[in-house]
Structures are given as C-alpha cells and as structure tokens.
C-alpha cells in the first residue's frame, strides 16, 4: 500500500472519530481540503463509499463503519509495534494512560505508588485519572485500568492485587440509641448515610437482600460519609480503608458483620499494550507494593492521610 493510502486511512479515521472534516482538521492540524482529498482518494482506491456527506452533517456508510473498526484496530497494533521497537533499545520511557477508582483508595493507595514509579522512571509519564464509573479500556484508549469486582471473561490481561472489605458501620452512641441490628431489614428503621448508590445489595453466603435507601443523608464522598457516621447521624457503608482504623480504635462499630463484602481489586490491560515494557513494569510495581500501601492506610486511617 502506497504512502497516500496510509495517509488516506489516517485521514479517514480522524474524520470518522470527530464526525466532521472541520473538527478533524482542527484536531489534526491538517487543512479541511487536504483531509477531504485524502478520503476521496481512499474511497476511489477501494471502490466504495465510506462517508455520506451533506452540507449539514456527515455519517459513515455501513461499509465505512466496518472499515473504520478494522482500520482502528490495525492502527492501534501498528502504533504499539512502533512504540515497542523504539522502547526495545532504550530505558523505560513514554506515556501510560491509567484509570482507577477514586476516593481514599485511589488517592492514598494508588496515587502514591504511581508517584513512586515516576520517581524511579522519570522518563515515563503516567497520566492517572479517577472515575466512579467503569471506563471502556479500549474505546477510551487506556493502557491500564484498576477495577473492582468480578472481571468478565475477555481477552484483556488481568492481574489481581488483593481483596478489600466493605463494612456497615455506625457510631457507638448511635448503636446505643437505636439498639442492635440483627437483620438487613432492620436498616429500614434507622437513618442511613449513602453516596451515589441508593440501593445496597447485601449478601451472606447464597442469601441476598436489597435495601433501597429512602431519605437519610446523601453525601458526596466516602470521607464525608465517614464523618457523618462518626457524628452519630446513621449507618453507612464504607470500604475498609475508610473505616478500619475507626473500628480498631472504637470510634465506629461494625453492624451486621456477617453481611460485609469482599471485593477483588485487579489491574487490566489490553494485550497489545501489555507488549510495552513500561506498561508491564508499572503493573509489576503496583502488584508488588499494593498490599503494603493498603495496610498502611488501614492502620493510619483517613485522619492521618
């Protein structure tokens, strides 16, 4: 395939992703007319129409959609191969795009480890982002993602770091005032403190109960939920990094301990990105140090971080 065809493919990918020649030109630095010419030459070489063009909008044809999906994967492979070849004769260098859960776990466990990695390998730039929603590692172009929960079968490279425990907690004064809670249904009788999830799926062995939170206190973060619980305002659901130190020191009491949940934490990576030495190095770095940093946060608690 000649150079014009490769340039045409890249021009087509830019236009398809940005959904207009104008936006693609602004993003790529090429002129609108040049992109249009390259795409037209590509269509002529293929003998098919890839884009429907009107004065008001642009969309891909069915053939264009299929061609886009195949070319996108091929370009990812080619770009990764080029990075691998350049990396093979140098020290670790380049960029890693990583996504992680946020909150105390992300900020005090994951982030310090990533910063330590960047100190060790100053030519590697880790772009770390946090989100509560699960990102699409392929579509969003991440090299590495930290995920919680069961992983579906896939072609992704996965490495389990450890399990964390989610507990139901309240202040000793709250428990004394409202009495002990023997069953998840008892939660409906007391004030609850919750975040973005307004229904709690509680499991004990094969048994499952769902508690729909009505009223109560809605907080923006685990840190605020913890403070509300310490103030005696209700029962809340927190990960161990947010509450273990308080339980150990008697500031919070675990209620319904049989209904606590263990959730696996894993790193996942697309196979094509796993070929890069810098990505494998970061995975190994995190796997070797995650448990120690997690235990440190458990022992010290949020107030010390």
UniProtKB/TrEMBL annotation:
Could you say which protein family the record assigns here?
Belongs to the LysR transcriptional regulatory family.
The keyword Transcription belongs to this UniProt entry's keyword annotation: yes
What is the scientific name of the source organism? Paracoccus onchidii
Keywords from the named record:
DNA-binding, Transcription, Transcription regulation
- Check the record and name the InterPro entries matching this protein: LysR-type_TF_proteobact-type (IPR058163), LysR_HTH_N (IPR000847), LysR_subst-bd (IPR005119), WH-like_DNA-bd_sf (IPR036388), WH_DNA-bd_sf (IPR036390)
Protein known as:
LysR substrate-binding domain-containing protein
Stretches assigned to the HTH lysR-type domain: 4-61
């Amino acid at each position: 395939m000649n150079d014009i065809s490769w340039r045409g493919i890249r021009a087509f990918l830019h236009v398809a992703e940005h959904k207009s020649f104008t936006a693609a030109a602004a993003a790529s630095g090429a002129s609108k007319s040049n992109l249009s010419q390259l795409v037209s030459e590509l269509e002529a070489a293929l003998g098919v129409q890839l884009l429907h063009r009107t004065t008001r909008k642009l969309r891909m044809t069915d053939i264009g959609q299929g061609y886009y999906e195949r070319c996108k994967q091929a370009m990812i492979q080619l770009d990764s191969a080029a990075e691998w070849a350049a990396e093979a004769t140098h020290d670790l260098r380049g960029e890693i795009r990583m996504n992680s859960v946020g909150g105390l776990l992300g900020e005090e466990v994951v982030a310090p480890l990533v910063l330590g990695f960047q100190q060790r390998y100053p030519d590697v730039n880790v772009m770390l982002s946090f989100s509560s929603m699960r990102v699409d590692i392929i579509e969003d172009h991440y090299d590495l993602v930290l995920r919680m929960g069961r992983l579906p079968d896939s072609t992704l490279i996965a490495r389990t770091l450890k399990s964390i425990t989610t507990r139901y907690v309240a202040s000793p004064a709250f428990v004394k005032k409202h009495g002990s809670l023997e069953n998840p249904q008892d939660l409906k009788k007391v004030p609850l403190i919750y975040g973005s999830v307004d229904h709690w799926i509680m499991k004990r062995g094969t048994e499952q109960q769902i508690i729909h939170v009505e009223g109560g206190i809605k907080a923006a973060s685990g840190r605020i939920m913890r403070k509300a619980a310490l103030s005696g305002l209700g029962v809340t659901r927190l990960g161990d990094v947010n509450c273990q130190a308080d339980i150990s020191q008697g500031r919070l009491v675990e209620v319904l301990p049989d209904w606590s949940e263990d959730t696996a934490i894993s790193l996942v990576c697309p196979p094509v990105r796993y070929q890069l030495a810098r990505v494998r190095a970061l995975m190994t770095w995190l796997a070797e140090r995650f448990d120690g940093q997690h235990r440190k946060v458990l022992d010290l608690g949020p107030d010390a971080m």
